[in-house]
Write a structure and sequence with these properties.
- The protein is globular.
- It has a 6-stranded mixed β-sheet, sandwiched between helices.
- β5 and β6 form a beta hairpin.
- The protein is α/β, with parallel strands linked by helices and about 200 residues long.
- Bound molecules: uracil.
- Uracil (URA) binds next to α3.
Length: about 200
Amino acid sequence: MSALTELYKGIELCQRCEIAKFRNNVVPGEGAEDAEILFIGEAPGYHEDQQGRPFVGPAGKFLDELLASINLDRQQVYIANVIKCRPTGNRDPLPVEIRNCQEWLERQIEIISPKMIVTLGRYSMSMFFPGKSIGKIHGTAQKQGDVIYFAMYHPAAALHQQSLRQVIEADMLKIPSLLAQEKEIVETEPEPEQLKMFDM
Ligand code: URA
């Protein structure tokens, strides 16, 4: 059994939050266990809770289009959320829910060991870019250790505010060159730590 499948079993049994009682399905995440890019959204919504899969509603349709714009599909990346259960009434996740669920996300990051983590929206951004504002840092990348962190608006933002659609599309198009630059750096200036990352 793969490490992620094993982890899903733990997530499915998790009852740390009140919202676990109301879920139809837990939504652990999906995609390639060895994905180079890990996208992290906020929380499952109605459709995700019904199907047990991340980003399968209208925001997910836009995410699929964004992935296609850089010649990727969801089987080639990994898509997760900050929290794995749908907050009741579609409210924002509570700090306690984010804390309770953090262990699952950390394990996913450990197992997948992505080269790039793309934060979708404020909640995942604030885990990796604490104190920053999405309006200021969307479309920018930071490297910490071996991982590139790239902040984007949540795809649902484009559904509420049409003017953000082009901003989100333009930010997505930056991803391939950020990953390519990274490879170039490693090829030209191999550091022992970086080599380890790309040898995996
Ligand atoms: N919004 C999210 O943040 N995640 C989903 O899975 C769906 C919508």
